Amino acid sequence: MEYIEHLKKDKKLAAFINGPVHERIQPHKNIPLQLIGSIMSQQLSTKVVDVIYKRFLALYNNKPPKPQQIIDTPGEALRGIGLSNAKVNYVKNVAAFCMEHKITDKKLHAMSNEDIITLLTQIKGVGKWTVEMLLMFALGREDVFSIDDYGVRSAMIKMYKLDKLDKKKLNERLLKISGKWSPYRTYGCLYCWHLKDNAPVVEKA
């Protein structure tokens, strides 16, 4: 695999590369629903997310709902599947934003990573990390570095023996190191998560 050979040029990272991980970086359909799934998964275990998401789809006869259907769903019904009040609002925010801005798979695939982050972080409840995960695991972008991800930071601090007390200098070092992984920074993050056994929750629509 080309990305493996490229990342192995980083000798410290190479020690933790023991096979391919590209099967996780594939574009998926219905990106707006993927984003809603990401909102649901925040701060929850994979097991809990699976249960909530199945309940969510059951509200729509196990078919992927359209944004208008989600907007029309009573808040009580969404709270009934296990979502907090805040997440109910965030889910509806995403659905309304996607309708208002005519967000489609085609539109997002035509945009740059930076433009997608700028666009989607306008939604209340959607932060940069959430969009970075969407770029990686729903849009299949190969060159995304999530500098604020706990698992990525922890793994890199351990691998490169970095000083974590000075956050500014640490961020500069992380960006410099990850810059050498480009154009395959997403895969670099995956290997970091493998090292920490701390892969993020990825919900598939």
UniProtKB/TrEMBL annotation:
Domain of life: Bacteria
Domain HhH-GPD: 40-197
Keywords recorded for this protein, A-Z: DNA damage, DNA repair
Signal peptide limits: none
Cellular component per GO, a single term: protein-DNA complex
Family matches, as InterPro entries: Alkylbase_DNA_Glycosylase/TA, Alkylbase_DNA_glycsylse_CS, DNA_glycosylase, HhH-GPD_domain
Any one biological process term the GO annotation gives: base-excision repair, AP site formation
SMART domains with a match to the protein in the record: ENDO3c
Reaction(s) the record says it catalyses: Hydrolysis of alkylated DNA, releasing 3-methyladenine, 3-methylguanine, 7-methylguanine and 7-methyladenine
GO MF term set: alkylated DNA binding; DNA-3-methyladenine glycosylase activity; DNA-7-methylguanine glycosylase activity
Keyword field contains Repeat: no
Broad EC category: hydrolase
E.C. number: 3.2.2.21
Entry's family note: Belongs to the alkylbase DNA glycosidase AlkA family.
Name listed for the protein in its UniProt record: DNA-3-methyladenine glycosylase II
Species: Parafilimonas terrae
Lineage: Bacteria, Pseudomonadati, Bacteroidota, Chitinophagia, Chitinophagales
